[in-house]
Write a structure and sequence with these properties.
It contains 5 helices and no strands. It has 166 residues and is mainly alpha-helical.
Amino acid sequence: MLPLLFILLLAIPVLELWIIVQVAGELGLPLTLVSLIAISMAGAWLLKQQGMATWRRLQTTIRSGGVPTQEVTDGALILMGGAFLLTPGFLTDAVGIILLLPPTRATIKAAARRWWAARARRKLSGTAPRGPGPTGAARDWSTRGRSSLFPPESGRPGEDDSPDRG
């Protein structure tokens, strides 16, 4: 994951610069700069509108006693969209605006939810270590909740050592 991030951090500015040069070659430098500024201004307006709407929905959900998971997810995507809009260039502006538009944001949220669910299923499918130590210790759960790591005579943590009061 880290090498991919490193490659993206190097490739995106180069790609942005190449796109700007190509657009400037077609439209001219003044019109290219005006286009970049106009897109950024439109994105800033959209960022403010969507951010405030999400903030109001978040407050309403909290006041009604709900858990604002959708609003927090929207807020995170809006924040990412704003960060992309701050980066100069046509490509990052396009990604930023895509993250700010409610219909595309809903599609992205659904795809992210499916990805996280698949990732959780993979993690919980038995591939994770099952106990303490570098490889995990096997447990025998057939002893009614007692782990084979702590046999009854070993003074298992949390057991009541006091005599029966019955």
